Amino acid sequence: MQQNPFAVTFGQKPVVYVERPHLAEEILDMFRTDPITNQFYVLRGPHGSGKTVLLSDIANRFEEDPQWIVVRCDPESPGFSAIANALREAVYSGNYTAAGESDESYAFEIEGILKWLAGRDKKILFAVDAMADTPQMQNFLSHFQLWMCKELPVFFLGTATYENMQEIQDAPCLTFLYRAPKIDLFPLDPLLMAESYQAAFGIPEAQGLYLANFTKGYAFAFQALGHLYWDAKPAGNIEDLLPDFDALLADSAYSAIWRELSLEDRILCQAVAKSGSGKAADIKANLPDTVSGHFRQWCLRLKNQGLVDLPVSGSITFALPRFREFVKHQPRKTSD
Fold first, then answer.
1. I want to staple 207 with a disulfide (CB 3.0 to 4.6 A). Which of 40, 141, 203, 221 is the partner?
2. Bridge-partner residues for 223, per DSSP?
3. Cβ-count burial of 138 within 10 angstroms (0-12 exposed, 13-18 middle, 19+ buried)?
4. How are strands ordered across the β-sheet holding 40-44?
5. Which of 12-21, 174-183, 252-261, 310-319 holds the top average pLDDT?
6. DSSP assignment, residue 315?
7. Residue 187 region by backbone torsions, left for phi larger than 0, else alpha for psi between -120 and 50, else beta
8. Burial of 73 by CB count in 10 Å (0-12 exposed, 13-18 middle, 19+ buried)?
9. What confidence tens digit (pLDDT) does each residue in 96-126 have?
């Protein structure tokens, strides 16, 4: 029996994977082509939008280039000791022991290694998945800025949700991040998704496009629907898959998204979910003054977080598949 080619676990590149070729090539070219104008990129998007897989794909391609050294940092604690160990291993093949053990001694050692590598035409990419506003991250990014100012060959590629990135760049010592490029992950191409479904399931073009449109281009939904459809072969009615589809979305992505929303964000999401028309006027009429008084601001926040679309017609729709159904059953406050 052939193994299911769709993945519902995060981090690994699925067998059936819809590429974002232009985006990956843009970052590769920016880091490789002289003159270098940007050494720092952050991929932004909600949970399940494909940030981790894209980051890994780009990092893997840099690792294939002997001119590059890729250092994958722990997002929970991008400490200098781990970074120093990774650079030592690349430079000394692991046969090296440093005398210092403090962050500052490690940072001094790292800068020395970076200068040594620069003299040998090497470049270093730091890859950090799921960035968060921690003291360790702030310390690392502050030093990274200094390394850039000293014209060392350092590059950074990270992933973050919109809200986490806002918190990081609001730190007093990291205002340079406001000027750093952020790439918001757009929905996957529906035609590429349809072609992938067609090839995987041997279904007609119209059916492949129907499945693709159902996911709204949301990367995890593409994998989740494909995973369920594969196991249900031959599957005819997508309605039969909805309970399991909703459960996968909730457990693997939507619950995490909901936990990170502010109370005002949740109130607005619930008003959108309950609205029959989706029209801004109808939604605003049912909001408390604390939210309705800043209605446009909160709508833009949700759009920036990749949760809603704001068509020119004045209506508000959810950008994620079945998110309306998820929101309807959520309390505004969480126990954590």
1. 203
2. none
3. middle
4. 68-73, 123-128, 154-160, 40-44, 182-184
5. 252-261
6. B
7. beta
8. buried
9. 445 456 677 888 889 999 999 999 999 999 9
| Structural element, H or E, at residue 70 | strand 68-73
Contacts of 27 (CB under 8 A, 6+ apart): 41, 58, 157, 183
DSSP 107: H
Name residue 18's amino acid: V
CA angle, corner 172, sides to 115 and 293, nearest 5?
140
Say how many C-beta atoms besides its own lie within 10 A of residue 214's C-beta.
18
Under 8 Å CB-to-CB from 31, ≥6 apart: which residues?
38, 39, 62, 123, 125, 155
pLDDT tens-place string over residues 132-178: 998 889 999 999 999 999 999 999 999 999 999 999 999 988 989 99
| Amino acid at site 54 | L
Per-residue pLDDT of 46-97, as tens digits, reads 999 999 999 999 999 999 999 999 999 876 666 788 888 888 888 875 444 4
User: What tokens were used for 8?
Assistant: 């519902």
- Count CB-CB contacts under 10 A for residue 119: 9
Average pLDDT, the chain: 90
